[in-house]
Write a structure and sequence with these properties.
Elements (H helix, E strand, L loop, with lengths): L14 H15 L7 H89 L9 H34 L4
Helix pairs in contact: 1-2, 2-3
Length: 172
């Protein structure tokens, strides 16, 4: 009983076909006129049958290979899609982390400026008495200016921190 193609190892997979090929080649090398017609037909039938089997195996292997390649292509597309999603998530997390850090820096800076303004500017200006200068109005304008600067300063700090994150990111 001949082993099936699944059970043959790599060295034996075409052993039968090669043996038939060499036999026919040997017969052709001999004087063809000396061979009988039946002997030639018998070898031709054997070679045709072997070719038919080999062709069937080649078709099966091609079909299996095509299906496996299709599965690999789909798996690769899925991996690439998941990788893009992962990179987008990492970018979002990095941006969120940077926004939080920038917010913390700006909040501390704002608190520091308000403390300074309360301690130094407010205390000194409240003692100034003048017809053309209202210290409360000036103090409120300084505080409004500080509040107005919060968002631009926060965006600038975010940009600096994001640039630092990108510079520290390992290259692909």
């Amino acid at each position: 009983m001949n082993p099936s193609p699944k059970n043959r190892n790599k060295e034996q997979i075409f052993e039968k076909e090669e043996q038939i090929f060499h036999e026919v080649q040997k017969l052709l090398a001999d004087d063809a006129q000396e061979m009988e017609k039946e002997q030639i037909l018998s070898e031709l039938r054997k070679m045709t049958e072997s070719y038919k089997t080999l062709l069937g195996e080649a078709r099966l292997l091609t079909s299996v290979s095509d299906r496996l390649q299709s599965k690999l292509n789909k798996a690769n597309e899925n991996v690439l899609k998941k990788n893009e999603e992962l990179e987008a998530s990492v970018s979002e997390l990095t941006a969120s982390k940077v926004r939080r850090q920038a917010t913390n820096v700006v909040l501390l800076l704002t608190i520091f400026i308000f403390i300074i303004s309360e301690g130094m500017i407010d205390a000194n200006l409240l003692d100034v008495k003048s017809e053309w200068f209202n210290p409360w109005f000036f103090i409120m304008m300084v505080k409004v200016a500080v509040i107005a600067m919060i968002l631009p300063v926060q965006r600038w700090i975010e940009g600096v921190l994001l640039k630092g994150e990108k510079d520290n990111k390992p290259a692909k």
